Amino acid sequence: MAVSTLKEIVDRAFAEKYGVPAINIVNDLTMEAVLAGAVEARSPVIVQTSVKTVKSIGSDVLFAMWTAMTAGIDVPVALHLDHCPDRDVITECLERGWNSVLFDASTLPVEENQRQTIEVVKHARTFGAHVEGEIESITGVEDGVGSDTEAARQSLAVSLRFLEETGVDVFAPAIGNAHGVYKREPVLDFQRVSDLVAAHPVPIALHGGSGMTDAQFTDLIARGCAKVNISTALKITFMKSNLAFLTDAEARDKWDPPSLFAKVRADIVDLTRGLAEQFGSAGKA
């Protein structure tokens, strides 16, 4: 229990066919609220930081927050660096204490991506950390990383060679998913997940989870998506909660920051608890 490794968390989820919320936080309030929501749900959770968040707050401060907020926590939690193409930032976070990273070299040719991912995996192992890999860009820009142009999908053979050669612990394929807000219900390649898992049993990371339907989540988790990324939904909840409170405060001319923080925290706790229930991880801690 308490601070765990990414592999410990997702391997169990993969075996038991439930999904673990992997939620991108943006500050101290959202980190604490996500952790509190996981405790309420008795669910494992993966707290994710984008490169933008690491650079804006600082890795030292972020990890100090993490250490303080997870002291004595009694559900499995892991700290993950999301979508990072910068190996210097990966090294910085591993040295601070992040216990997993997504090395995003998806803009590189597959052969170069594979070569560098092998190096990142080897480096991460010296810290006891784990690595998520991907060979295709997930459509959409998130915190300055990515592209709105859909990337070509690699063949099953290319994906399997990448998995076998790199030894990544989690794999993030493109299946029609996208970062950001979906303008319509996404058309997803469910079979691609099944084909990958059947040929090389590895936990799959489902990116672009914000806005998918319950039926899509249920189907993909049953096929092997053990890590379900949520970023946009948290940002929307955070911003709308602030906006609603401040609009009301302005109308009443009542200005009480602690009440604002309490309202936003409660909404993020509710979001996290709801995701755990939706993905089947509630009660698994």
TrEMBL record:
Gene3D superfamilies: Aldolase class I. Zn(2+) 1 binds at residues 83, 179, 207. Pfam families: F_bP_aldolase. Keywords: Metal-binding, Zinc. InterPro entries: Aldolase_TIM (IPR013785), Class_II_FBP_aldolase (IPR050246), FBA_II (IPR000771). This is Ketose-bisphosphate aldolase. Zn(2+) 2 binds at residues 104, 134. The keyword Transcription does not apply. GO terms for molecular function: aldehyde-lyase activity; zinc ion binding. Dihydroxyacetone phosphate binds at residues 180, 208-210, 229-232.
